[in-house]
Design goal:
Radius of gyration: 15 Å
Oligomer: single chain
Strand content: under 5%
Structural class: mainly alpha
Helix content: over 70%
Shape: elongated
Order of helices and strands: HH
Distance between the termini: 18 Å
Amino acid sequence: MQIIIPGLLAIIVLLIGSAVYLWRTQGWRNKKEWIVMLIVLAAALQLVNVTLVMTAQRPAG
């Protein structure tokens, strides 16, 4: 469980970085759908990550 959380964070950073790279190189109008898709996917993974962090911090028992 502990290795999944940083792994998801790395994927989220990669997705956001890819969206920013597309925006800077290709422009908003040319790659709008891809940029939005990458940001939405990163947001969904962040929700999963927050849920995992919250359940990992909950005391057992």
